[in-house]
Amino acid sequence: MATKLWASRAASYLRVSTFHRAFATVVKDLKYADSHEWVKVDGSSATIGITDHAQDHLGDVVYVELPEVGASVTQSGSFGAVESVKATSDINSPVSGKVVEVNEKLNDTPGLVNESPYQDGWIIKVEINNNDELKSLMDHDQYSKFCEEEDAKH
Amino acid sequence: MRGGLWQLGQSITRRLAQADKKTIGRRCFASDADLKKTVLYDFHVVNGGKMVPFAGWSMPIQYKDSIMDSTINCRENGSLFDVAHMCGLSLKGKDAIPFLEKLVIADVAGLAPGTGTLTVFTNEKGGAIDDSVITKVTNDHLYLVVNAGCRDKDLAHIEEHMKSFKSKGGDVSWHIHDERSLLALQGPLAAPVLQHLTKDDLSKMYFGEFRVLDINGASCFLTRTGYTGEDGFEISVPSENAVDLAKAILEKSEGKVRLTGLGARDSLRLEAGLCLYGNDMEQHITPVEAGLTWAIGKRRRAEGGFLGAEVILKQIEEGPKIRRVGFFSSGPPPRSHSEIQDSNGQNIGEITSGGFSPCLKKNIAMGYVKTGNHKAGTNVKIVIRGKSYDGAVTKMPFVPTKYYKP
């Protein structure tokens, strides 16, 4: 998810949209980007998706634009987009590397991103270039706090 | 984030800011404190409304239901919308009709008392200043509702022309109904639910008709119209009675009519093929290009006499160079400003509104193409984030309308 989604005036458009569910789920062993993507690292392989907080703000996802296998992604760079009934949002990569797999199921059932953001709704798998990049990401505690603060601001 | 309602809200807010630099210009952006609230604001918040800035107002984009569910529920049961940000006004006086006819394309004189129509305020070049539903209450009383985002601009335009009209001896005055609030009740349950709250027989009141009547103990202006393609009503209620009326409507429907926000309202109007001013119609677009030639009365076509009539009547004769059409498409939903190409990749126009249709479960959009590419079935390419996707020109409305007609 592009930082601009949250940082721009759009944030005020989306604000308070989580107030009926105080805390979106945040999973322990994942790392989080401030643009609301998660990454699960297993050796040099990283699985990437958008967070529960992000899908909740976006609402019903109707289309996920996936990159090609073999494409390069860079940390904080956009590699695709999520379209909901409400809005369009870029998806940024939390790490740099090469796309080794994309979740083809999202072509037919983009709603998996809403139903299961951390499992069936994963978006791409990447072969990581540089594990040091993970240091700049948040852990689950930091991310939970980050979301709370961001919601409070709007 | 790009596109969609956000952009719509922002573009209108931006225009509003330009028109009203005194109040907004000195700030970087309009903060919550600057936003106007309707009398239903607290009611929205209590009911889970997610309030967003829209045309200078804090309005609910949605409630607890998703936009998808809300849209479908409107067509299956019903929706109640707070549209009190829109501006209602009355023009009174024995010359109110000739006065308004200078500014709009409708045959106002030809309307039967107690009926109304969609119309367009035009400028000297034939472009659209705003669209509006106007009603002839009586021969010396007209009732209009104009867009929230166009309020200042429209009122300034009307006032300027009213001054010169009156200086030539014309009898017209206005009243802006800021003492009233506007609710829209739409969907198949709209009439049966509203019937519980009034003694008037609504089965005798058809699409486009207007009455002043008692609803839930308050004197209301009722118009059988809407912005969803469904049967329904717009109810102008004294502001002190608005919350009670909203509660009574929801209660009488036994929870089936649900509060519905701007998000679903946009999906609904798009499915119904209705223009959103600021997206699908602008200052440089004529009613003919926008596909609203039907709204130009026969007498008006013969006589002209409204701003920009020369341009518009010539366009009717020769055919417009561009036309508003609908599209189905594959891939991501088109959004406003997506480029439209012909099958050879040549630019033929631009999308003005688009999204995923909750009822049809596919992408729908509208936009302007060069004449010649406007026929239903014409294959086009729609460019989204640099990739082109297949689309086809499609007749509108996308979802059949269900207006209550005799």
UniProtKB/TrEMBL annotation, chain A:
Cofactor: (R)-lipoate
CDD domains: GCS_H
InterPro entries tied to this protein: 2-oxoA_DH_lipoyl-BS, Biotin_lipoyl, GCV_H, GCV_H/Fam206, GCV_H_sub, Single_hybrid_motif
Subcellular location: Mitochondrion
Gene3D superfamilies listed in its UniProt record: 2.40.50.100
Modified residues (N6-lipoyllysine): K86
Residue ranges constituting the Lipoyl-binding domain according to the UniProt record: 45-127
Entry keywords, A to Z: Lipoyl, Mitochondrion, Transit peptide
GO CC field: glycine cleavage complex; mitochondrion
BP term (GO), one: protein lipoylation
Cofactor note: Binds 1 lipoyl cofactor covalently.
Main location, first listed in the record: mitochondrion
Keyword tRNA-binding found: no
Record text on subunit structure and interactions: The glycine cleavage system is composed of four proteins: P, T, L and H.
NCBIfam families named among the record's database cross-references: gcvH, PRK01202.1
Protein function: The glycine cleavage system catalyzes the degradation of glycine. The H protein shuttles the methylamine group of glycine from the P protein to the T protein.
Family annotation (PANTHER family): GLYCINE CLEAVAGE SYSTEM H PROTEIN, GLYCINE CLEAVAGE SYSTEM H PROTEIN-RELATED
UniProt similarity note: Belongs to the GcvH family.
HAMAP family recorded: GcvH
Name of the protein in question: Glycine cleavage system H protein
Gene name per UniProt: LOC104213585
UniProtKB/TrEMBL annotation, chain B:
Subcellular location(s) of the protein: Mitochondrion
Entry-linked NCBIfam families: gcvT, PRK00389.1
Keyword terms, alphabetized: Aminotransferase, Mitochondrion, Transferase, Transit peptide
Chain sites annotated for binding substrate: E234
Enzyme kind, highest EC tier: transferase
Subunit-level organization: The glycine cleavage system is composed of four proteins: P, T, L and H.
Function description: The glycine cleavage system catalyzes the degradation of glycine.
Catalytic reactions on record: N(6)-[(R)-S(8)-aminomethyldihydrolipoyl]-L-lysyl-[protein] + (6S)-5,6,7,8-tetrahydrofolate = N(6)-[(R)-dihydrolipoyl]-L-lysyl-[protein] + (6R)-5,10-methylene-5,6,7,8-tetrahydrofolate + NH4(+)
One GO biological process term: glycine catabolic process
Pfam families (UniProt xref): GCV_T, GCV_T_C
UniProt key word Calcium: no
Any one GO cellular component localisation term in the record: mitochondrion
GO molecular function (one): aminomethyltransferase activity
InterPro entries: GcvT, GcvT/YgfZ/DmdA, GcvT/YgfZ_C, GcvT_C, GCVT_N, TrmE/GcvT-like
Family, per entry: Belongs to the GcvT family.
The UniProt record lists the keyword Mitochondrion: yes
EC numbers, comma separated: 2.1.2.10
Species the sequence originates in: Nicotiana attenuata (Coyote tobacco)
Domain GCVT N-terminal: 40-298
Gene: GDCST
Location, primary (coarse class): mitochondrion
SUPFAM superfamilies for this protein: Aminomethyltransferase beta-barrel domain, Folate-binding domain
Domain Aminomethyltransferase C-terminal: 323-399
The name this protein goes by in its record: Aminomethyltransferase
